[in-house]
């Protein structure tokens, strides 16, 4: 029962689906009936080269989290996620969020390759300097 001095707050109904993380253009996209995770993901420019597409998660408006692993565990039949389209075939509603995490292993490998190429380049430069000095002596 509402009494004098009570207040009622009616939350705004979201009208979009957010796509965040390792995508080319993180954004909120107007919710469209029947659109799937795949539709929203590619409307946000698709995953970046450093995205871990195996670990994509959907945070529903009610706070529940859905992952590909969770869908596989929830369905007892081995090919049920293949038939339904798995996580990418999941239909989304306004207020849902798609999160694409970064693939840390790819980033580490890239940093390692960058470090190696820097060492090789510096070594080649040093050898060139030594050769130049030896030639002038």
Reported for the largest beta sheet, the result is:
5 strands, mixed
CATH homology group of the largest domain: Outer membrane lipoprotein wza domain like
Shape descriptor: elongated
Q: Looking across the biggest beta sheet, what order are the strands in?
A: 2-1-5-3-4
Indicate the percent of residues in helices.
Answer: 25-40%
Describe this structure in words.
The relative contact order is 0.18. This protein has 4 helices and 5 strands; from the N terminus they run ββαββααβα. The protein has a 5-stranded mixed β-sheet. With 137 residues, it is of the alpha+beta class. It is elongated, with a radius of gyration of 25 Å. 38% of the residues lie in helices and 15% in strands. It has 2 domains: 87 residues, Roll (Outer membrane lipoprotein wza fold like), CATH 3.10.560; 35 residues.
Tell me the layout of helices and strands:
Blueprint: E1 16-21, E2 27-30, H1 37-43, E3 57-59, E4 65-67, H2 68-74, H3 80-84, E5 97-100, H4 104-136
Parallel strand pairs: 1-5
Antiparallel strand pairs: 1-2, 3-4, 3-5
Features:
137 residues, alpha+beta, Outer membrane lipoprotein wza fold like, 5-stranded mixed sheet, elongated
Condensed summary:
The chain is α+β, with helices and mostly antiparallel strands.
């Amino acid at each position: 029962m509402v009494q004098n001095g009570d207040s009622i707050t009616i939350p705004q109904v979201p009208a979009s689906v957010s796509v965040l993380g390792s995508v080319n253009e993180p954004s909120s996209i107007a919710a469209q009936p029947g659109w799937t995770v795949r539709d929203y993901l590619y409307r946000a420019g698709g995953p970046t080269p450093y995205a871990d597409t195996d670990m994509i998660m959907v945070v529903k408006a009610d706070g529940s989290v859905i992952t590909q692993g969770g869908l596989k565990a929830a369905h007892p039949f081995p090919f049920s996620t293949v038939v339904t389209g798995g996580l990418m075939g999941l239909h989304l509603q306004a207020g849902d969020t798609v999160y694409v995490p970064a693939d840390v292993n790819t980033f580490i490998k890239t940093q390692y390759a960058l470090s190696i190429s820097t060492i090789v380049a510096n070594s080649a430069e040093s050898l060139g300097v030594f050769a130049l000095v030896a030639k002038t002596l």
